Amino acid sequence: MDHQEPYRTRSFSRESSLASSLSLSRSLPLFVNNDVDDSESVSEAGDIGDRSLRRRHSSGRSNRLFSSEDLIEQGGDDTSRQEHDLSVIKPLPEHMTTSPLPTKSLLSPETNNPGKKEEPVLPKSLEYISCLIHLAVFGILGAITRYLLQKLFGPSVARVTSDGSILYLDLPSNMVGSFLMGWFGVVFKADITRVSEFLAIGLSTGYLGSLTTFSGWNQKMLDLSADGKWLYAVLGFLLGLFLASYSIILGVETAKGFRWLLDRRASSSSKERTSCLLEVNTFKMHLVSMTLMVVLLVALLAVSATQLVKEFDKGTSEAQLWLGCLVAAPGVWLRWFLARLNGRGLGKDGQYLRWVPFGTVIANAAAASAMAALATLKKSVDTTTCNTVASSIQFGLLGCLSTVSTFMAEFNAMRESDYPWRAYAYASFTIAVSFAIGTVIYSVPVWVVGFS
Fold it and tell me: Which of the residue ranges 55-69, 90-104, 141-155 would you say has the lowest mean pLDDT?
């Protein structure tokens, strides 16, 4: 029909988030329902948690963690709505499915050879275990990287960031994590998924989600407001949002440039490189990958426990780091499970506010509130042991539960959608709610009791 236009997007980031969440086959249809599709795509730009696993096993139609249904949550048994969506099926544009990498040998055997029987995949229980292990390993590595960036740019080395300043300690990690999210969580996420869907989850949700922290950002602004520096607190939020949002934009743009270079190179040398690639999305390779991740996780936990024993009585920042690494995994897991709420909406069939990533909102607000409560506890008890334990939970568990990189991926997708005002409404609501609750939990007791 003349009045129906082919599906198109207004930004590369939105195309990539869609492409990374689909099976990425040229023959794959895309269900388009205008505003509904736009709402779901922006709210699921960061993460959808374990919904992809649950839906894939219940349908039994795909052997990939990311399928076309991941972006088309219909809600309930509304068959009439599904029939309407089926009536407007559009083919997925070629530029969204064509990878610059010669990934033909990375696709499933059925894709390369329709007559060949598809290899078995991991059972559902093992897939969950593999996801949790990958998330734990990458989450701990993300927390360690965040600590190193704090030290590198903090008062002891570069002296760029500090407490009591709008350039808070976690600003560099939030910027770096948002920049890398543009690369590995937006532009190249589809290519990473072809290699290993568990690697894609571990890298974007685990590493980049834990490298950045919303609760740490919110707490530093609460510290400023509790000291009466309200202007600094407001400027800290504005500057942090500005730098993080432009970091992911820079990441997307530079990744697009690198993809263009790969495109040119792949056109001339694809045959030579294809033979060197291995198929990793197989039952055997998943087991090998999971085994390696288990070994790495045990090693990280063993090193953290050993170092904690040496440093705990000293109450140093190293003690907080190692104890934080031991409690980091539950924070990543909880955020991943909460991500299943992204794109679900409110109401009987989820027809309201489908564009709001409620999972990310809950994770960030809950972590910010818990961090404010622990900050109040540290001021009221004020002992070395209490400060070490509370600070470790703040750094590890709550730092990994909250995230700025996913927050920025969703913000950028909304900003480039047909309704850019949603991005600023989403960011303002998350910041305002977290700061308001934190003020009640932390700042008010500080003012009333008069903690030093």
Answer: 90-104
Structure confidence at residue 39 (pLDDT): 63
CB atoms within 10 A of CB 289: 18
- Residue 128 CB neighbours (<10 A): 15
The per-residue pLDDT for range 3-29, each reduced to its tens digit, is 444 433 344 444 444 444 433 333 333
CA dist 380 to 113, 220, 354, 392, Å?
A: 66, 18, 41, 17
Of the candidates 360, 356, 382, the one whose C-alpha atom is nearest the C-alpha of residue 434 is 360
The closest alpha carbon to 49, from 369, 440, 424, 403, belongs to 403
Phi and psi dihedrals of 419, rounded to 5? -130, 75
Structure tokens at 355: 């564009």
What local confidence, expressed as pLDDT, does residue 50 receive? Answer: 82
For residue 204 the two structure tokens come to: 């974007």
pTM of this structure? 0.80
CB 259, CB 191: distance < 8 Å: no
Three-class secondary structure of residue 114 per DSSP = coil
Picking from 13, 26, 28, 114, the residue whose alpha carbon sits closest to that of residue 68 is 28
Rg (the chain; Cα; Å) = 22
H, E, C per residue of 331-371: HHHHHHHHHHHECCCECCCCCECCCCEHHHHHHHHHHHHHH
Report CA 26 to chain centroid distance, whole Å: 26
Q: So what's the pLDDT on residue 449?
A: 86
Dist CA 56 CA 208 (whole Å): 25
Render the burial of 370-382: b for 16+ CB within 10 Å, e for the rest: bbbbbbbbbbeee
Cα-Cα end-to-end distance for the chain:
70
